[in-house]
Amino acid sequence: MRTRWINSPAAYALGMFAMMVPTQAFSTFYVYFYVNELGLAVGLATIARTIFLVWDAVNQPLAGWLSDRTSTRLGRRRPWLLGAVPAYMLTFVMVFAVPQGLGKIGLFVWFLIALILIEAVATVIWVNYGALFPELFRGGPLRARASSMQQGFQIAALLVGTAGMSALVSALGYGSMAVIGALLFGALMLVCIAGIREDEAARRGPRLSLRESFRTTLRNVPFWLHNIANSFAQTVNGLIASIIPFYSLYVLGLEDGQVTFLLASVFISAIPFVFVWYRIARNMDPVKGWRLALAAYALSVLPLSLAGDLATGIAAGVLVGFGLSGFLVTPPIVGSRIIDLDFEATGQRREGVYTAVSGFITRASGLISAVAFWIVGVIFGYESGDNPGPDPEAAFVWLSSYIPFMLLLVAFVISLFVRLDGGKVGRHDG
């Protein structure tokens, strides 16, 4: 039984569940907590999120390069993961355990430091975890099975990280929610790490310099187009999750406890839909399946603008769950193929660098989300929970429906330029 667990899709997917629960809780609540509950101005929140993205631009690629060059008895990725687990637990609690009595500037400084620390540690975790996938699972059938299981675990984690953590917030408060989330993450992530054994051959492979590694990556045009498109779509994932509490309050007029039902409508429905999308995608060209998922996701967010109460909100949420599940299933299939083809062309295993650069591009979605929030806030006069402006309902209809539709439309258009013709990764233009 123990042997079957080592390097199994379930062992690896457990890590996705462990990471996504606190990650989704963070994405769902941190803006609402600081802006609406603590009164941090939207402008200051946008400045803090922009600063951390500049820092992320440095630490993300560097983390991937260092991971690729690591060589220990435990492997390349596992030592980084083991060290990052306790650090992430502490920083996650820090985000929601804000000292009392901070003024506006003090609150801004705390918010900024907490963002920088949690994103730095999260970078180490996501880069090393993601880099394991192409190494552990070789070949189409095994990779497809591992990917579908990973996405199933991810959607289950999205549900726990939103609806479950929302219930904890209502019952116990943000601080206790953070402690419980941190403990859950630590326990499950350590079980995942214990179930992973890395490939000795990959550890002994050639090591590129930082300059050589990124020069080759920068020339991979399909890789960049794929990830830039995903960045716009990923913005929608984070935007909808973070906007739902505002949408619930200002658009649907729900009580705090009812937001759990709205969050659950998106993520519970997405669990069976992920298997629907897997069956669709496995019989299609990977790029075409990805494009179809982007188009479906774009259309699925429009009904949010029509909902007016809990029942219609839940119905609209189920449609969003369908679109979301398609976007979760299809991009990893395309991304893994691009990395495989790069290895065939260069003979170098650079999963860490590719995962890091991919993560940075998609994490830029945080800046897009912050700018969208700020612009809509300025237009409709929304500043914070203390000063919501004259028409907060219109503001959050735009942020939950119209803005996501436009972002996904941009993602779809970019996807039209991604070509993996003849099993090749296109040109690596220099």
Structural features, described:
- With 430 residues, the protein is an all-alpha fold.
- The chain has one domain (2-423): MFS general substrate transporter like domains (Growth Hormone, Chain: A), CATH 1.20.1250.20.
- Helix content is 79%, strand content 0%.
- It contains 16 helices and no strands.
- The protein has helices spanning 2-5, 9-37, 42-69, 78-96, 104-136, 140-172, 174-194, 200-203, 210-218, 221-250, 259-282, 286-300, 310-346, 351-363, 365-380, 392-415.
- The chain starts with a helix and ends in a 15-residue tail after the last helix.
Question: Which keywords apply here?
Answer:
430 residues, mainly alpha, Growth Hormone, Chain: A, 16 helices, 0% strand, globular, disordered C terminus
Condensed summary:
The chain is mainly alpha-helical and 430 residues long.
Number of domains: 1
What is the name of the CATH class? Mainly Alpha
* Helix-strand topology string: HHHHHHHHHHHHHHHH
How much is the radius of gyration in Å?
Answer: 21 Å
CATH architecture: Up-down Bundle
Helix/strand structural class: mainly alpha
Question: In terms of per-residue confidence, which ranges show pLDDT below 50 for 5 or more consecutive residues?
Answer: 422-430
Q: What share of the residues lie within helices?
A: over 70%
Distance between the termini: 49 Å
Could you give the count of β-strands? 0
Mean pLDDT: 82
CATH topology: Growth Hormone, Chain: A
Task: Name the shape in a single word.
Answer: globular
Oligomeric nature of the chains: single chain
How many individual helices? 16
Task: Summarize the biggest pleated sheet.
Answer: none
Q: What is the CATH superfamily? A: MFS general substrate transporter like domains
In terms of DSSP E residues, the strand content is: under 5%
